[in-house]
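Ex. 9. Protein: 4-diphosphocytidyl-2-methyl-D-erithritol synthase, IspD.
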Amino acid sequence: MIFVAVLAGGIGSRMGDTDTPKQFLNLGDRPILIHTIEKFVIMDEIDEVIVLTPQNFINHTKHLIEEYTLNNDKIVVIEGGKTRNDTLKNSIDYIYENYSVDDDSIIITHDSVRPFVTHRIIQDNIKAAKKYGACDTVIPATDTIVESRDGKIIKNIPIRDYFYQGQTPQTFKINKLNSLINDLTDGEKEILTDAAKIFVLKGKDVALVDGDVTNIKITYPYDLKLANTILNDKND
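Predicted structure tokens for 4-diphosphocytidyl-2-methyl-D-erithritol synthase, IspD:
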């Protein structure tokens, strides 16, 4: 089986003067979250889309799904966690509680505020996860990377050709991911930034999947302006 975890548990504190989490802000004439969910629900190979939101936005999310007539037989909305990795674990626990999972079952994890993910990227994620057990969507770094440990002095300027910018989806065989999560030390949990790092910390391979420069994450007000420009270009 193939599951999707849309990680919509954040509050969007960097979006500026708004009380609404960024995933619920409008992109064009629909909320960002709706744009994101629909990319997955229309794909026949995906069995269920799990949307994880703050507890006080669960009913609002369900209402939006009904309002925009998405295939809600294929969507479930549950509570996210305090951190990104807690939210991910909530999705895995839900899957184990409601489905019979085998070693080939896959979970696709995706930021709720990356609404321009393409079907090509999703399909490449599925193929790579089936082959390698784990994959991460990336694009090559175009800017020079500068390392500083104190924020004042450059310590190192690594070779740019070796570096990539991470996007999502990140996709994994569920049993393998869950086993590694359960094996994490408290110290390892504190330095986690995303699910792919769980595999890296444990010395497991994570395959690269080509992303796209338009697969942006809407974090700041400028990103939302850029996203509207991208949307308008796609609709022209």
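Check your answer against this statement. The beta strands are 2-7, 26-27, 30-31, 48-53, 75-79, 106-111, 134-140, 164-173, 207-210.
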